[in-house]
Amino acid sequence: MKGFLSHIYYNGLVIFLRGTGLRLIVTWLITAVAIAIAVWIVPGIDLINSNPGTIVSFIILAALLALLNTFLKPILKFITMPLSVITLGLFALVVNTVVLYLAVWIANGLFETGVSIYSFWSALGASVVISIVTAILFAVTGVKDKKKKR
User: Fold this and answer.
1) How far does the chain reach from its first CA to its final CA, in angstroms?
2) Residue 111 confidence (pLDDT)
């Protein structure tokens, strides 16, 4: 079964983006939507300044989260591997929470996005919501299909 985006691409609606470029942008937007849903659902995560730039705030935060997930998260997972083994993988949620905290802190410091996290438990809930929403959206769109047919 082909993904939704590959079908749109073959109909000629997205001609200027091909392959990896399209996947990168759609993954970025899916993560931004997941962050917006987490801010909306999870208590303790708020937008300090709700203005028309909030979409840009979510996109900036998604980009920073993607960068940290790419470069920092594997290092943190390697360092905390003994704890993850002892807790049967549950410590990975703590690593996700720390990466989310760091992404929000950098986004507020550099770009003043206005997203604030009030407690560890709010960040933990948000990281779980972001993981679930991105998994569902990736399954619906077919962006991260490993069985890519050429």
Assistant:
1) 13
2) 87
